[in-house]
Amino acid sequence: MKDSEIKTYRPDLRQFVINELHLLLLLVAGILCCGLEELPFINFLKGLCLLLGIYLGYQFLYLLRNRFTLTGEQLIYERGVFTRKVDFVELYRIIDFKENCSFLQQLAGLKTVVVYSGDRTHPQLAIPGIQSRTPLVNLIRERVELNKQKRYVYEITNR
Questions:
Q1: pLDDT by residue (tens digit) across 16-39?
Q2: Which helix (H) or strand (E) segment is 54 a member of?
Q3: Hey, what CATH class is 1-152 in?
Q4: For the chain, which residues make up each domain, given as ranges?
Q5: Which of these, 124, 64, 128, 136, lies nearest to 96 by C-alpha position?
Q6: Selection from 83, 73, 88, 82 nearest residue 140 by Cα
């Protein structure tokens, strides 16, 4: 793959289920209880179910609108439903990486890549819902090293 090739990553939709599983189960239980008309406070329960459904809908749209674009020199993070925010992380500022994989993510074949950088707005940027077989860390690492060489950026460590 060329260094200048632009790659775009979006969280897998299964990540929404992993993130909101407890609330999805609560919503299902609430909807089932709404069918029992003899329950006290049934209208209150229906209102809670409606609010929870709206919240989950918003969270779903928010996850859908997340986009991480890896260019030759930047990692661009776009997000937002009603307002759109875009943050740029210069690749030469990236210091370290980490991959997290929870139990549910392992079952779904997903992972979260965490990028640590010297960026002020996002010193720790999590990229959730990436398919496990995607070598995202290797790709970012290669581009980071190229950008550090281009800009003569060297890391000094104490041991």
A1: 999 999 999 999 999 998 888 787
A2: helix 42-64
A3: mainly beta
A4: 1-152
A5: 124
A6: 73
